[in-house]
Design goal:
By secondary structure, the protein is mostly helical. It has 2 domains: 261 residues, MetI-like fold (Orthogonal Bundle); 284 residues, MetI-like (MetI-like fold, Orthogonal Bundle). It is built from 25 helices and 4 strands. The protein is globular.
């Protein structure tokens, strides 16, 4: 008790800082905790508004609803297993061999990270659908059905294997190849060295990558909405359809809670258990980039694998670019600019809305994240643990749950935000503050506190110290965080689809609407525009901020920090 009182006195000795900390608590309570509580409360009411477990009873009684949970789990686990296998093979190749053009392959592998999450679904439709280029025009298969489990898993693997790759590349880079060489020097063959040295040391990272991809797959909304079909219901899309199609908000909230439980469980295991079991074997001594662990035959197999995946990336993005300038994909392959004309004509307002939301949300999210990181690392006060957990909670919460929560929490005075620009901006700010927090915490823990103490001894208060000393020092990480937050704000769909309105729309929602209407060429044109905007933003930030991680490296750094 005395310690807590002492911490409070120290905090209130700087009134401005105390006011800002209280403001952070209030903002997180309103824009993070309140929407989640609203979802839980709504799931425990019936359509008349009375408290009831009727919705959960319906969930367990109706086979169609139960199957949505089973389908989400099976597709999520399958996606995670295959994505981790692909990611590990790619990471192992780039960290343990002398593969030429490593940077080129690295950029190709992480390209899906900066794309809309359903770009792969759109590519799969055009390649393997009923009128797909491969199924119909090359193989001659008529009316091939790509919908259901196979389509969802294929699209999610392409989308989330790069996430596993980024995580595992960081893990393998932290394991010195000299350990493997030493094992072989004392008599172990290559397979024994891998199974007894490399694999055990990287196993915690593999488990962490598995859980991260599982969370992403369970939270995925765009791919299932395009490819799941009516015979393969999934929780994320079923919750959306119950709300927008059946207008059953309580049941939709119950499905969102059912989706939230496995996601939160995987997040807690990944963050608070597996992080403690990470192994680092970097000694500070120079090491070779390649290891004796890889034989000539294994190198050729790994090179072939990397080349095949890279060709797949080219194929997926190439078909998007081709469809954008094709009159009617699958029927009339005549070159046309009509799709882009439509996108820049009818959809120009949507492009501006998306840019406006991203430009407003990104800097606020970055600054708020850095300030919360400063609070977490440098201050002690009662409730700091709750503040940290709440601020990071959106890492684990599926976007579907967040979108439903915002509808429920902000549809009446005094916070009547539905249909406004503010609700979109606030959603993105608090959805992606964990990016800035993780980035700031990682950097601040490497800075000697004596720098701040010296400034305070010269008369600066803590807010001034944060503004004039800490922010310039952490600027590289801050701007790397901005890159990642901007990319996510431009490409997110799962929460935003609940919050757009006739007045304010987003590119990702527009793309899904075009796919639903069968206008694949227009959807492809919007996708190309979106990817170009994101790449241009990354290049501009890299050019404006000398010394920061820059471009694709920023995505790499932020993804590693976001997954722990």
């Amino acid at each position: 008790m005395r310690k807590r009182l002492r911490e409070l006195r120290l905090l209130f000795s700087d009134p401005l800082l105390a006011f800002l900390v209280a403001g952070v608590f209030a903002a997180l309570a309103v824009f993070v905790a309140l929407p989640l509580f609203s979802v839980l409360l709504k799931s425990l009411t019936n359509e008349s508004g009375d408290l009831s477990i009727e919705n959960y009873a319906r969930f367990f009684n109706f086979r169609y609803l139960r199957s949505s949970l089973w389908n989400s789990l099976t597709s999520g686990v399958t996606t995670a297993v295959i994505s981790v296998a692909i990611g590990y093979a790619a990471a192992f190749t780039l960290t343990r061999t002398n593969l030429p053009y490593k940077r080129f392959f690295h950029v190709l592998f992480i390209l899906p990270v900066i794309s809309p999450p359903f770009t792969s679904a759109l590519s799969i439709l055009m390649l393997f659908g009923a009128n797909g280029m491969i199924t119909k025009w090359i193989l001659g298969i008529q009316n091939f059905n790509i919908y259901g489990f196979k389509g969802v898993v294929l699209s999610q693997i392409f989308t989330f294997a790069p996430v596993a790759y980024l995580t595992l590349k960081g893990v393998l880079e932290s394991l010195s190849p000299t350990l493997e060489d030493a094992a072989m020097n004392v008599g172990a063959n290559r397979m024994q060295a891998f199974l007894r040295v490399t694999w055990p040391l990287s196993l915690p990272g593999v488990a962490s990558a598995f859980l991260v991809v599982l969370i992403e797959a369970l939270s995925d909304f765009g791919n299932p909405l395009v490819l799941a079909g009516s015979r393969f219901p999934m929780l994320s899309t079923q919750a959306y359809l119950e709300i927008t199609g059946s207008f059953n908000l309580p049941l939709g909230a119950a499905l969102a809670v059912a989706l939230l439980i496995p996601s939160i469980t995987a997040f807690v295991i990944q963050r608070y258990y597996l992080q403690k079991k990470q192994y680092v074997t970097i000694t500070g001594k120079p090491t070779a980039t390649a290891s004796k662990l890889v034989s000539v035959g294994a190198y050729r197999a790994l090179f072939l694998f990397v080349a095949c995946f890279s060709l797949l990336v080219f194929l997926f993005y190439g078909v998007i670019a081709a469809a954008a300038v094709t009159r009617v994909w699958g029927y009339d392959f005549t070159f046309t600019a009509d799709n882009f004309a439509y996108a820049f004509g009818v959809g120009f307002g949507t492009i501006l809305d998306t840019l406006l939301v991203a430009l407003l949300a990104t800097p606020v999210s970055g600054l708020l994240g850095m300030f919360i990181a400063f609070i977490i690392v440098r201050l002690s006060f009662p409730g700091k643990g709750i503040l940290e957990l709440t601020s990071l909670l959106n890492f684990a919460v599926p976007g579907t749950v967040v979108g439903i929560g915002y509808i429920l929490a902000f549809n009446r005075p005094p916070l009547l935000l539905i249909g406004t620009l503010a609700i979109l901006v606030l959603n993105f700010i608090f959805r992606y503050i964990p990016v800035g927090i993780q980035s700031g915490v990682a950097v601040l823990r490497q800075i000697d506190p004596s720098i701040e103490e010296a400034a305070q001894n010269l008369g600066a208060d803590r807010v001034t110290v944060f503004r004039k000393i800490m922010l310039p020092i952490v600027a590289p990480a801050f701007f790397s965080g901005l890159v990642f937050a901007f990319v996510r704000a431009m490409t997110a769909i799962s929460a935003a689809i609940f919050l757009v309105s006739a007045k304010y729309n987003l590119l990702t929602v527009q793309i899904l609407n075009q796919v639903g209407s069968g206008r694949l060429g227009v959807a492809a044109a919007f996708s190309v525009i979106l990817v170009v905007i994101v790449l241009a933003a990354i290049w501009i930030i890299a050019a404006l901020v000398p010394g920061h991680a820059g471009g694709m490296s920023a995505i790499t750094i932020q993804n590693r920090e976001s997954v722990g």
